[in-house]
Amino acid sequence: MYEHFFQCPYCWEEISMLLDPSVSKQTYVEDCEVCCNPIAVTPVFGNGELMSFEASEIGQ
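^ CPXCG motif-containing cysteine-rich protein, sequence as received from the core. Prediction below:
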């Protein structure tokens, strides 16, 4: 597992998530551990390394 720190797109607090590098491209929804809003998370891995990461608001 890979721990990644980033800012919540809603409350701007720094949070972390555990990411699974065994899948090269993923998209899923996780709730912010601070404000509980849903975040669309898209990590992309290459050779076990995090190549890109996007965390965005879910359309309201």
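The chain has one domain: 2-57.
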